[in-house]
From TrEMBL:
Reactions listed under catalytic activity: a ribonucleoside 5'-phosphate + H2O = a ribonucleoside + phosphate
UniProt keywords, alphabetically: Cytoplasm, Hydrolase, Metal-binding, Nucleotide-binding
Family the entry assigns: Belongs to the SurE nucleotidase family.
Domain Survival protein SurE-like phosphatase/nucleotidase: 3-187
This protein's name: 5'-nucleotidase
Pfam families in alphabetical order: SurE
Recorded GO MF terms: 5'-nucleotidase activity
The UniProt record lists the keyword DNA-binding: no
Species assigned in the record: Kocuria carniphila
EC number: 3.1.3.5
Amino acid sequence: MRILVTNDDGIASAGLAVLAQAALDRGHEVKVAAPAEEYSGASASLSGEEIDGKIALVDADPPNMPAGVECVGVKAAPALIAFLASYGAFGEVPDMVLSGVNLGANTGKATLHSGTVGAVLTAASHGIPGIAVSITSGQPQHWDTALLVTKFALERWESREFDGRILNINVPDVAPDRLRGLKPADLASFGAVQAQIHRGDDTHIAVTYSAETGREEPDSDHYLLTHGWATATLLRAPVNDTNGQLRTIDLEELGITSSSAPDAAESQGDIDVDAATVMRKT
C-alpha cells in the first residue's frame, strides 16, 4: 500500500517518524508530507500559503525518520495536504493516510478542532481511509507505546473495506508494559480544554485556557485514557442527518410574490457548475 503520513504539529515533529516506521514495518510504501509550520487546531481547514496559484514546498528532515523515506514540508494546513494528495500532488494517490502522532490527546469534542483528525476526515471524504493517532503528552517519553498500538491498528485497518469511517487512536504516554490494552471508546461529552473569554478593550479579546473536567463517563475516550487504556473511536466525515424534521417551504411562506419569482423553467432547471471554478474558489 501507498501511505501518506502527515500531522498538524509540523514537519519537525518526532511523531511523524513513529507513523512512518509503523507503515514500513507493515511492508508499505511511505511518503511524508506535513505542514512546514505547526497547524494545531486547524480542523479541516484548506488554508495554505499560495503564490501565483501554487502551494509552497520546503525541504524537510523530520527527527528520527527512517532512512529512505521521502519527506516534504508543505506551507498548508494538514487537511489541505490530504486534499492535495487525493489529487496526486505528491505522487500517486495514497491508499491510506496516517496522521500524527499528535502531541496531546484528541478526545471528546476536541476532535472537531483537531488538524490531526481533520486531515484523515478530509482524505476519507475523497475515498481514502485513514487513522489519526495521538499521545497524551506534549513531551512524550514512550513513543514505543504509540508505535506498538499504531502497528496493531494498521494491521487490522489496512484490510478493512472502506465505508467512510476513520479511526481515531489515543495512546497514554506510558511504557508498553504499563498499558492496559486497546479499547473501543465513545467520544467524551466534553472537550479537553475550557476557554475563558474576557473583553479587554476595542482591539483585544483576552483568552485563557484550562483543562476541562466533566462527569465520569466510563465508556468515553477521556476516561479510559486516564485509566491506562489506549482508545479507538470510529468517526465519519460529514453526512446529512436523514432523521431531521426539515420540510419544504414554498414562496408564499418565504414572503416572495409570484411577480418577483424566477420563471418556472429557470427555477426548475438544472444549474451547471464548472468544477474548475469551484476548485479555484476552495
